[in-house]
Amino acid sequence: MRKFIVAGNWKMNGSLAANDALIAGILAGMPDSENVDLLICPPMPYLATAADKIAGSRLKLGAQTVSEHESGAYTGETAPSMLRDVGCEFVLVGHSERRALYGESAQAVAAKYVAAQSAGLIPVLCVGESLEERESGKTEQVVDEQLNAVLDSAGVATLANAVIAYEPVWAIGTGKTASPEQAQDVHEHIRRVVGELDETMASAVQILYGGSVKGDNAAGLFGKPDIDGGLIGGASLKSEDFLAIANAAAALG
Ligand code: PEP
Is 242 a pocket residue for ligand 1 (Cβ < 6 Å)? Predict the structure, then answer.
């Protein structure tokens, strides 16, 4: 039985004061359910403070990106070991904003995934198609290419310590959510692709959906058999919105 994960990607939002209030709100209302893990991914400068605030709780910490390098002359970058050092367990890799705005190639994403795991982090590998790709019938092809770039270099066995997030680019921050059926189709496809390599891994790997998930659509999405929770952007910035999504998952657990 796979657990749900509800992960908040705060993107480039927040301040010390706002984060304190947000974390306090989440901690005060977190569902007491063994079937849901809650994760927050604040911006880099706030990770260490967030780690202090959540210490001793069930709330988990992740970063939004990571360098593929261990250390050295990479100005502005953050090494995987540094994220571990400040208390991160997870890191997003290949978020569509990183791919589109910062030119992260499939190979760079694969290198980040490998580097993250080498440091003991759990990568949340984000894959997903643009609107144009969906409309031209290329959704599965795009998702396969993004997934296979990682599986070819890291190996399917590494999914034991990873999470996949299906995030159709056209649904991120747009208010347009994939219908539960549209999302389920792609999740099922991803599980089938993994299953062609390793059946056990396919049934164990958690696949999150991301793209305008809110309190009022979460239950429909999470109720689908291959959707194991959500990666949440906008609705992770208010504790009551984030908790509504977490509670939807807990109610299904
Ligand atoms: C995201 O940034 O990963 C995301 C899914 O954002 P939103 O929920 O705002 O669409």
Answer: no
